């Protein structure tokens, strides 16, 4: 009886071994390899600033700018004088952009005789496209006395995000 049991155990072990070899012969291993690369470019920037209009006797100065900031120094002489600056923004990247915010805030403690008016930019800026912001700096024409405070700064934030 013991001999029969041993034979049965060895037979089962041999059957399992044969089944394992047979399974290995018919099994297929599939291998997947992949690679991804981002080839787009985000590049929304300021490309030009010009004094589009300067009242007689006023000085627009030479505006300074980088890809992300603009500085101009307007010198106004008489009430009603104004200077307009044209700021050109370009989407030099490959991703369309949409305007997240455009906020222009004149300094609260500056001269109330200096007024700022802004317009633009466009809400959507396609890849390769351009838009402009117009900033008008004006000596309030209703001013009848020389103001004690003669300067006023404006801070503007324009933010584009991927569309």
Structure description:
The chain has 163 residues and is of the alpha+beta class. It has one helix at 2-26, and strands spanning 44-54, 64-65, 70-71, 82-91, 97-106, 114-119, 124-125, 130-139, 154-162. It has one domain: Immunoglobulin-like, CATH 2.60.40. A hairpin with a 4-residue loop joins strand 2 (64-65) and strand 3. The longest helix is centred in the first third of the chain and has 25 residues, at 2-26. It is rod-shaped.
The helix-strand sequence is: HEEEEEEEEE
What general outline do the C-alpha atoms trace? rod-shaped
Output the number of helix runs.
1
The major beta sheet can be summarized as: 4 strands, antiparallel
CATH architecture: Sandwich
> Unreliable segments (pLDDT under 50, ≥5 consecutive)?
none
| Derived structural class | alpha+beta
Q: Averaging pLDDT over every residue, what do you get?
A: 92
* Share in helix: 10-25%
In CATH, the topology is named Immunoglobulin-like
């Amino acid at each position: 009886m013991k001999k029969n049991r041993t034979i049965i155990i060895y037979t089962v072990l041999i059957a399992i071994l044969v089944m394992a070899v047979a399974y290995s012969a018919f099994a297929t291993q599939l291998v997947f390899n992949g690679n991804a690369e981002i080839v787009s470019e985000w590049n929304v920037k300021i490309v030009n600033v010009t004094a589009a209009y300067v009242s007689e006797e006023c000085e627009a100065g030479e505006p300074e700018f980088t890809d992300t900031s603009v500085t101009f120094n307007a010198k106004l002489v008489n009430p009603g004088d104004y200077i307009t600056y044209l700021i050109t923004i370009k989407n030099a990247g490959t991703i369309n952009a949409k305007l997240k915010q455009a906020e222009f805030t004149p300094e609260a403690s500056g001269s109330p005789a200096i007024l700022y008016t802004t317009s633009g930019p466009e809400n959507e800026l396609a890849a390769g496209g351009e838009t402009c912001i117009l900033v008008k700096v004006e000596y309030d024409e209703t001013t009848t006395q020389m103001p004690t405070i003669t300067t006023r700064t404006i801070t503007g934030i324009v933010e584009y995000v991927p569309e």
